[in-house]
Specification:
Blueprint lengths: L13 E15 L2 H17 L2 H7 L7 E7 L4 E8 L5 E16 L1
Antiparallel strand pairs: 1-4, 2-4, 3-4
Length: 104
């Protein structure tokens, strides 16, 4: 009895995608502290593995999370705000650009 084996081949195609994210830090009463918190967060993101970075950024690469990388040019800013009681607070903002693969 002869048998025949069929082999199916599938190819996965991926598209390189770039996006930006702004990650806020906690509100603090000092502008200098807000900058420090944002810079600390940026340094942490730079040191993260691709999987950790994907987790920190809200799982933006579901198809190929290991492909995620932080692009050059990330920076920090600080937002100043006043609540209804007239109290001013500052929030550090980490601005990052990332590249990752996405399935077609």
């Amino acid at each position: 009895m002869a048998s025949t084996m069929a082999i199916l081949s599938t190819q996965a195609f991926a598209t390189t995608t770039q996006t930006t994210r702004v990650i806020p830090t906690e509100d603090v009463s000092s502008q200098a502290v807000a900058y420090e918190l944002a810079l600390d967060k940026l340094q942490t993101l730079k040191a993260d593995s691709a999987i950790e970075l994907n987790n920190d950024l809200g799982h933006i690469s579901l198809d190929y999370p290991r492909s995620l990388s932080l692009n050059d040019g990330s920076y920090v800013t600080v937002a100043e705000k006043m609540n209804a009681n007239g109290e001013i607070s500052y929030t550090g903002l980490v601005n990052v650009s990332v590249t990752f693969e996405m399935a077609d």
